Amino acid sequence: MTYSPPKLLTFEQFLVEYGDNPRYELSDGELRDMEPTGPHEEVAGNIAGRICTEILLGNFNWLIPKTCLIKPPAAQATALRPDVIVLDKTRLSQEPLWQKEPIICNGNTIKLVAEVVSSNWQDNYARKVEEYAFLEIPEYWIVDFRGLGGLQFIGSPKQPTFTVCQLVNGVYQQQKYRLGDIIVSGLFPNLQLKLDDVMPC
């Protein structure tokens, strides 16, 4: 039996074949199934709703697009698709692809990304921590509502965990929150949010 490596895709091929499919993203040419479920989408929707409320109350000139890809400038065959992304409207005019496609190339356009953890939790806790920090995204939320992450990331015993990563000198400082904890966000100082508020029914 011989091993056949997966077919690698270019960014352009990914856009043509999977650009409109929210189930997939591209990582160094490899197609990644984000494995969304109903509860996963419910949690993502709950987070987007809470953030939208904070944007309106704070009168921030930001938006949450329905769909959006991130194309890191240093990665030729990568297209990241966060579950929730907050964009600075004032910087969209500097985005080279935005007028034709919902694609962000410049990290400074992004205020926050949130990822809801699924079975491919390693991407959220390791790879994306590095990639989002490299893009200098100020805040990254990891919402592990099923407690799937490795013990080194969410502790023991495993339990639902909400991790807020805040960029300090190019590195994310991470704070973990459990059910019942009040979550603190640097971007949203008046945020009134607990993990309990975004859990699926």
TrEMBL record:
Q: Where is the Putative restriction endonuclease domain?
A: 12-195
Q: Which SUPFAM superfamilies match?
A: Restriction endonuclease-like (SSF52980)
Entries under CDD domains matching the protein:
DUF820-like (cd06260)
InterPro entries, alphabetized: Nuclease_put_TT1808 (IPR012296), Restrct_endonuc-II-like (IPR011335), Uma2 (IPR008538)
> What domain of life does the native source organism fall in?
Bacteria
Q: Which PANTHER family match?
A: SLL0198 PROTEIN-RELATED, SLL0888 PROTEIN
Q: What is this protein called?
A: Putative restriction endonuclease domain-containing protein
